[in-house]
Amino acid sequence: MSENDFPHPETLAIQVGRPSPTSDGPLNPPISLNATLHAGGEVGYGRYGNETWSALESAIAAFESGPTLVFSSGMAAINAVFSLLPVGAVVTASDQGYSGVMNLLRGLDAAGKIEIRLVDIANTDEVLAAIPGSALLWLESPTNPSLKIVDLPKLIAAAKSHGCGVGVDNTFATPLIQQPLLMGADIVAHSLTKYLSGHSDIVLGSLSIKDPALFQRLSDARKIGGAIAGPFEAWLALRGIRTFPLRFSKAQENAAEIARRLQVHPKIAKINYPGLPENEYHLRAKSFMRGFGAVLSFTLHGGAIEAEMVCDSSRVITHATSLGGIESLWERRRRWAGESESVPESLIRLSVGCENIEDLWRDISQALEQI
Ligand SMILES: Cc1ncc(COP(=O)(O)O)c(C=O)c1O
Question: Which domains does the chain have, with CATH numbers?
Answer without folding.
Answer: 7-241 (3.40.640.10), 245-369 (3.90.1150.10)
